[in-house]
Specification:
The chain has 620 residues and is α+β, with helices and mostly antiparallel strands. The protein folds into three domains: 143 residues, SH3 type barrels (Roll), CATH 2.30.30.140; 269 residues, no CATH class; 134 residues, no CATH class. It has 21 helices and 15 strands. Strands 1, 2, 3, 4, 5, 6, 7, 8 and 9 form a nine-stranded antiparallel beta sheet that branches. A hairpin with a 2-residue loop joins strand 12 and strand 13. Helix 11 packs parallel to helix 15 and helix 13 runs parallel beside helix 17. The longest helix has 30 residues. About 23% of the residues have low confidence.
């Protein structure tokens, strides 16, 4: 029988916690204890959260009040008074230095008891930040200064002489004015930031979140596998018998992979979508708070973009443009888009090296070039007001997916000699068109997703948005061009019902989550039960989010099943999307769980006990 370690301190206890890298102790409140990592989560008076080991926490009774007499001797205590407090460990630029004036009171000792007194001496330090003159024009830095002024005048700090071993890396989170936690660097890294650095390059910092996708070695595999897989399914889908046992598929001549005309079509399409994106049509939506406390504005005119694109495509067909070119040059278009996404990723990484540290993504900040290139180094890369990540996330690939599906319907009529697309092709086109149009109609909801809030913009998202989505999500339509599958009326009714049920779950759960994140005090949401957290946010435990932890994933999976069923069961290839989506959502759920456990601590454990199932009720 496993014996659980005893927990000395309970949630809510007021104790003294040692600041990492120093011997300073501060009054902190215990938020919880993680039995797996054997760490206490505590919060300081200025809002900083920190994970401490048991030996770094002491009861308040272990400290005695110091003598009020002042000593002028150069004691070790005076030298130690230069240790930094939590208020001084916030991130700062080279143009901005924080300073403190310390008044030290040292206990009187006699020579005979000096050794004993040194172990018990106590220093009382009062910090008074000097006025900071900010000559920077960077609006992110000015916002951060405003947040720092709200945290001045901390509580009295107490120091006692302990072993001066270097403390391990700690997970620091300083809460901003809106209650959202932001990462703070350990003491050693904060000291290093004060050293002069080249003005151009952003400092390399240690990644503050665990590495995903197999870590620094795993990303080499994904960088090779993902493009190869897209080329494989394109080549396989064009075979008369696209069975997976026919591996490898016959390769065309190397010079047929890249076509100048296909590259021109891809660039023209991206340019067209960029023009629609910058037009002053639609409303400006406010994003979620960043680490600096700032909120970015986004032009959410996606529905205008998709309707305008539909009109443009219809006009092109009317004028005699042969859209079946997309089917006959599907491979060349895929390779051209892959080249564009790679060049975009290189540009994104190079520019990220010259960005301020507070604009970098936590997860893509490992210090390893290949990993950061893949995961995304900068969180919100922008060219003036043109947000590159938001544009790629919702426009060229997503709308292009619908155009590809429409072109495949025209190609099916041409190849099969039909006067109209088959019922299976119509279902696939309508189902996926509804999915895209709904996403663009509710475009504002994507501002609260993991991609926009946490993931940097690098190869992973650039390739996924521009290549993976349009060239693999359209695989069902591509497959049906050469492999028709007749459907009877009962099958049609069952598939349509399944699609509508999945869409209803997906849309209602996403809307409830988005509304709650944007305005938790909305009277329309007053009936929902929540669990409060130390960050100031609350976790939903009723409504759609009380049924399973990710009801939107459940709706997504039901819709994915409805997309694959029209293709029948003759081959596994058109079921690729369903299989891939299960893997994707399970992995994303794992990432989300780890992130929430670090962020919310014991509150997340309570949430998991309340909402037991992750995606499928009673199953998983």
């Amino acid at each position: 029988m496993r014996i659980m370690p005893s927990v000395r301190f309970q949630s809510g206890d007021m104790v003294m916690g040692r600041w990492p890298g120093s011997s300073l102790y501060y009054e902190v409140k215990v938020l919880g204890f993680d039995g797996k990592s054997q760490l206490y989560t505590v919060i300081y008076k200025d809002g900083t959260e920190l994970e401490l080991m048991d030996q770094d926490i002491k009861t308040s009774s272990a400290f005695r009040p110091a003598s009020r007499s002042r000593s002028r001797s150069h004691s070790p205590g005076r030298r130690r008074s230069r240790s930094r407090s939590p208020a001084r460990t916030t991130r700062r630029s080279s143009s901005r230095k924080a300073a403190a004036v310390a008044t030290v009171t040292i206990a009187e000792t006699t020579p005979s008891s000096r050794r004993e007194a040194r172990l018990k001496e106590v220093l009382q330090t009062r910090l008074s930040p000097r006025p900071v003159v900010n000559n920077s024009n960077n609006k992110h830095e000015k916002t951060e200064d405003n947040n720092d002024t709200a945290n001045k005048n901390p509580e009295t700090k107490v120091e006692t002489e302990l072993e001066r071993n270097q403390a391990p890396r700690y997970n620091l989170r300083r809460r901003t004015t809106d209650g959202k936690a932001s990462e703070t660097k350990p003491q050693q890294e904060a000291d290093e930031e004060e050293k002069p650095k080249p003005a151009a390059a952003a400092p390399l910092a240690t990644c503050t979140t665990p590495l995903d996708f197999g870590g620094k070695i795993g990303v080499y595999f994904w960088l090779l596998f993902l493009p190869a897989w897209v080329l494989f399914v394109i080549l396989q889908g064009n075979l008369e018998d696209p069975s997976l046992v026919n591996f490898p598929p016959p390769l065309p001549a190397l010079d047929s992979f890249l076509d100048a005309q296909a590259l021109g079509v891809v660039l023209l399409w991206i340019l067209f979508q960029a023009v629609l994106f910058v037009l002053p049509v639609g409303k400006l939506s406010e994003g979620m708070p960043l680490k600096s406390g700032e909120r970015l504005n986004y032009r959410t005119n996606g529905f205008f973009a998709v309707t305008t694109s539909a009109v443009a495509v219809a006009a092109a067909v009317y004028l005699g443009v042969d859209l079946t070119y997309i089917h006959s040059h599907f491979l060349q278009l895929g390779v051209a888009t892959l080249l564009v996404s790679f060049l975009l990723s290189v540009y994104l990484y190079v520019r990220s090296r010259y960005r301020p540290a507070d604009q970098l993504a936590l997860g893509g900040n490992s210090g390893n070039v290949v990993y950061d290139f893949f995961k995304g180094h900068e969180l919100n890369p922008r060219i003036k007001n043109f947000d590159l990540k938001f544009f790629c996330e919702m426009r060229p690939g997503l709308i292009g997916w619908c155009v590809i599906n429409f072109a495949m319907a025209l190609a099916e009529m041409k190849v099969q000699g039909l006067e109209a697309p088959s019922h299976a092709m119509i279902l696939v086109n309508l189902f996926q068109l509804l999915y895209v149009v709904d996403g663009l109609w509710n475009e504002e909801a994507i501002l609260t997703t993991m991609d926009l809030m946490h993931d940097g913009f690098g190869f992973m998202l650039a390739f996924g948005d521009l290549v993976w989505v349009p060239f693999t999500y359209s695989l069902q339509a591509y497959y049906l061009v050469g492999h028709p599958n007749p459907l009877g009326l009962p099958a049609l009714a069952a598939i349509i019902t399944m699609k509508l049920v999945g869409f209803y779950i997906f849309r209602m759960s996403n809307s409830q989550k988005n509304n709650f994140r944007r305005n938790p005090t909305d009277p329309k949401l007053a009936h929902l039960k929540t669990i409060p957290t130390a960050t100031g946010k609350s976790l939903l435990v009723s409504g759609w989010w009380g049924m399973v932890r990710h009801p939107n994933y459940l709706g997504d999976l039901i819709m994915a099943l409805a997309w694959s069923l029209p293709c029948g069961f003759s081959h596994l290839l058109p079921w690729y999307y369903m299989i891939y989506f299960i893997i994707l959502l399970v992995h994303r759920n794992s990432r989300d769980t780890d992130d929430c456990r670090r962020k919310y601590g014991s509150a997340w454990d309570e949430y998991c006990r309340t909402v037991r199932y992750r995606i499928i009720p009673g199953v998983y």
